[in-house]
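Worked example 2:
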Amino acid sequence: MTKAEVRKRYLDLRKKLTPDEIESLSLGIANQFLRLPIWDMKYFHVFLPIRSKNEVDTEFLLTLLQGKDKEVVLSRSDFESHQMHHFLLTDSTRIIVNEYGIPEPEDGIEVPPNKIEAVIVPLLAFDANGQRIGYGKGFYDRFLSDCNSNVLKIGVSFYDISDSWEDVLPTDIALDFCVTPENVFDFRQV
């Protein structure tokens, strides 16, 4: 299989999910997060879901992290440079939806990537080696390469492990964990 084939398969699966299913599965993912060895960390990067693509609803994770007094960092994407800029989520953060349907902070207190300790990574599919497939623009691979080498990369998925694909690139950065509604997959020893 190729990334394009896997991407299409999981986009089609997600299209079939109802809002109630997305809410239930997303809550299951948040509950599984309690099993991760992350609670001594302070700075967590979280994505906000693209509703039209039926992504994992991270509101439950945001509530969990804020309830544990963690600092939450959100990103704004620059589609010219394919870079992400990171901002601390505060009470005064204003979220806007960009032309691609991505909710982002308008501005705020910028946070350098090397300060972030854990990144919750959106994805379409992941395999038994912790490789992930996103939308194919490379934003997260570039962002993760700017973080410290010990940053924890935590994927979230409605679905369990996919078959592997043949076109893994040297620039693809593998996950440390992937959390699904039923499981926590640990790839640190793979």
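Residues 3-186 form a domain with the Rossmann fold fold (CATH 3.40.50.10420). The longest strand covers residues 71-78.
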